[in-house]
Amino acid sequence: MKTRFTAWVGLLVLLIPAFQAFADEHPKIPLLDKNGDNVIEMAKAQGQKLVINGVTYFKGNPYSPEQTCGSCHDYEAITSAYHFQLGATDMGDDWGKKHPQFHYSHLLSAGQYGSW
Prior knowledge:
mainly alpha; 2 domains; two-stranded antiparallel sheet; 5 helices; 40% helix; extended
């Protein structure tokens, strides 16, 4: 048991710097809404902000993953991938009520499709 734990800790020690290096490589990008407008800049310009415990949050349009990421990444390939589509075929407004074993009546499907 101790050997297995040591192996996991060793693996994590090796992988954490690798993931950090990967995260550092991605350039900073603006969050864009469905029209391609910068969400944060528009919210700042409109003065829609909320301060909670010293942290400033800006209220504005939701960001669009397609507009934000689609200029560099193949958005269609990503959104049609297997894991992205889990639950798409059984989605329904009452899915959670029909499946009480999942304990959440607000669920729309068994997968990530439709979740937020």
